[in-house]
Amino acid sequence: MEFSNNQIQIDNLPNLDAVELKPVSKHYKNIIILNSTLSYTIIFGLLMTGKYTISEPTFQQYFILILVIVVILCLSHLIISLLAFKKLKYAIREHDVIYAKGLMIQSLTTVSISRIQHTETSRSWLARQFQLATLNIYTAGESGSDLSIKGLPQEEAKQVNDFLSEKVNGNN
């Protein structure tokens, strides 16, 4: 048998930019806001507790500066999280799953259906309140999920999970 290793022309490769990616549910933005608000409340609570329990003169002298820095960091985090939310998109194709995310560092993950070991959906308490779910996709050779698509409507996550399970199990 003769070995061949022909060069692939880049122009002939499929273009992922041509795939129409679907955004996650708009309700997922509410979860981002609520989670951030909870985190910020804890941070401000700790900071205010420190104001009244730490008698260190340096801490008291710079408390307002620390408070301003924490407020700026929290607002920056919230703004970046909300802008990054708009970049959460996915597509299910015949042979693969595509997931795009990231604001400053954008990533496009493609998982071949032939590499998927199993899939599952999960729902946090907060996600249940908004009828949302996370689709976790596991592939061979890794621990933990290789791809998690958060913020899918519950029914849609179930449909995608069922579709991928059928494909993985060979029940086309």
Outline the structure in words:
By secondary structure, the protein is of the alpha+beta class. It contains 5 helices and 7 strands, in the order βαααββββαββα. A hairpin with a 5-residue loop joins strand 3 (96-101) and strand 4 (107-112). The two termini are 34 Å apart.
Largest beta-sheet characterization: 4 strands, antiparallel
The termini sit apart by 34 Å
Instruction: Count helical runs.
Output: 5
Q: By helix and strand content, what is the structural category?
A: alpha+beta
Number of strands: 7
Overall average pLDDT: 91
Name the overall outline. elongated
What's a quick, concise take on this entry?
By secondary structure, the protein is an alpha+beta fold. It has helices spanning 28-53, 57-61, 63-85, 125-129, 154-168, and strands at residues 22-23, 89-92, 96-101, 107-112, 116-122, 132-139, 147-153.
What labels describe this entry?
7 strands, 172 residues, three-stranded antiparallel β-sheet, four-stranded antiparallel β-sheet, alpha+beta
